[in-house]
Amino acid sequence: MTDELTEALRATLQAAAQDAPAPQPDLLQRVERRHRSRRRGRAGLAAVAALAVIGGSGAVVSAVGSKDAPDPAQPAMRATPGPLTPAAPPEPVPLERLWPQAVRTVPDRLPGGRRYRPITLLDDTRLLVATESGFEKTDQLLTYDLDARRVTGAIRVPVPSDAVVFPSDFSVGGGHVAWWIKRRTAGRSVIEIWAAPLGGGEGRRVAAMDRGRGQEDVRLLTIGGGKIYWSMGEWGGSPEGVYEVPLSGGPAGKVPDSAGFQVLAWPWIGAPGPSEFGEGKAGDRYHGTLRDLRTGRTQTAALARIPGPWNCGITWCVGYRTPPQKRTGPELESPVYLQRRDGTQGRVLRGVTPFPPEPGLLAYDRFLAYTLESRKDGRPAPKIALYDVQTGKVGAMELPTAKDGSYSVPGPVKEPYDRLFTIDRKDSYVLVDLAKIR
Amino acid sequence: MPVDDDGATYESFVTSRAQSLLRYGYVLTGDPHDAADLLQESLVRLRAAWPRVVNKRDPESYVRTIMARQHIGVWRRRRRERPVGELPEAGYIERGLERAEHDPRLWDLLTALPRRQRAVLVLRYYEDMSDEEIAATLGISRGTVRSQAARALDKLRAQWRPSPDRAESGSPR
């Protein structure tokens, strides 16, 4: 029997829809104006960033970040890029067979039964995980020792009741973890940066920015040199610059001359930043300019000309052909272009369907992730593949699919130094520790 | 201006679909001004993504997804996972325009629901989506869809009584 309430709901929603207003007659022009102003960036807009400093408890922090970053400026820079040579990735080998030392499957519940979500690997055996109290609402960060199967270092993550973006983009460095939230009160948006020591304790607000009616979100955070760095921008717009605040609290501010730059990974920031949708055209070189926050030294990538935008991480750049404006087929066929920032080792990979279509970065500045779309018994049997630019080897693993044939793929890689690549399975996670691949 | 192989431009899409999208925005938000804002903001995003969307996906379902997600507003910024569906064939079937029975009391009760719960109900009973489709649209698990829907229906059930003369009156508004 159909429920009376759900019947009434259907009828009421359908009837109410007829009471909707008519579209504004100048809707197209309004949309176009807003679209253009975003593409120009936020420079001309009246939104004023008010920086406030909150807290300031005296957490002791090491002076240098935990990552000993290689200096991509070290190899002699070439004034002109080398050629791109064709390369065909070999038949993929199952991930766990190709890199057994790096792959492990773990249940998606902690000892004690609570569900969790992996954030990153802190070292060879310790996984930073988040537990959630509700809909994507992190309430706790924990350190999970995968060998000892023991959980330590509980960090409480408070979520204010007026939060409109829950704790996001957890980032680790200098013995700390940092994240951001967005709150909305009385129509005003406030972006807050929070942090806590990895040993455990309570999350602490280290900076708050009143963005008025602005629509910005934080793009990425990184920790290094005793400070938290983050960049912000509107969805689809260019980044407005890089901000910093000492981990121990204290004045927050904008990194001088950082307009257009966004955070990559300590100590690197890059410009220009790509928009969230990965729009781009031939000649664009996202993060083509790389700056070292420690020295202020800047370098520019030397890259071959390709029919689409380049998207650079720290050492490597990835490119795809800009999608044609006219539909050419059910799937976009494009090679993937790879070249080191210094102009060496350029190659064109064929037979690789990039997915997601947003050009991400190489995982761990070394592995290209893509999907292999195949069918088995008339059903989609997609695989996720990792191509190692150092050895040319390819490892792959089948992705679980739902009854209707839909499936989830890992999103584009945005953090070039994250050593963890996670594949979600039904009741488990496959953790690929990219740092263990020699 | 971007054109796909049917000669359909972004402009013609907006012009032909704006009213239907605005109806959807209105049942999602329950407010005509919020609906207009939501539509405008979502179209700005569609505009930025148009070349990709016309090639890879159906713009109508894309913009409806953006509207729903944007309206609920509260979600962890996902970066690791994104759902991939089998692509819909094309086009969006407009539901019948026949005047259905409106229950103003129920419409008011919907206003009191948290946005996410309301969005789940709208996707289920206005968009006729399965829980699986709702999960993909909102980027949440099927379990969450079910629990949110159950909670919303419980709340409504606690306060709503069918009006006894509803079936006969046809209540023109």
TrEMBL record, chain B:
SUPFAM superfamilies: Sigma2 domain of RNA polymerase sigma factors, Sigma3 and sigma4 domains of RNA polymerase sigma factors
A single GO BP: DNA-templated transcription initiation
Keywords: DNA-binding, Sigma factor, Transcription, Transcription regulation
Keyword Protease in annotation: no
One Pfam family from the record: Sigma70_r2
InterPro entries for this protein: RNA_pol_sigma-70-like, RNA_pol_sigma-70_dom, RNA_pol_sigma-E_actinobac, RNA_pol_sigma70_r2, RNA_pol_sigma70_r4, RNA_pol_sigma_r2, RNA_pol_sigma_r3/r4-like, Tscrpt_reg_LuxR_C
HTH luxR-type domain ranges (all copies): 110-167
Family indicated by similarity: Belongs to the sigma-70 factor family. ECF subfamily.
Name of the protein: RNA polymerase, sigma-24 subunit, ECF subfamily
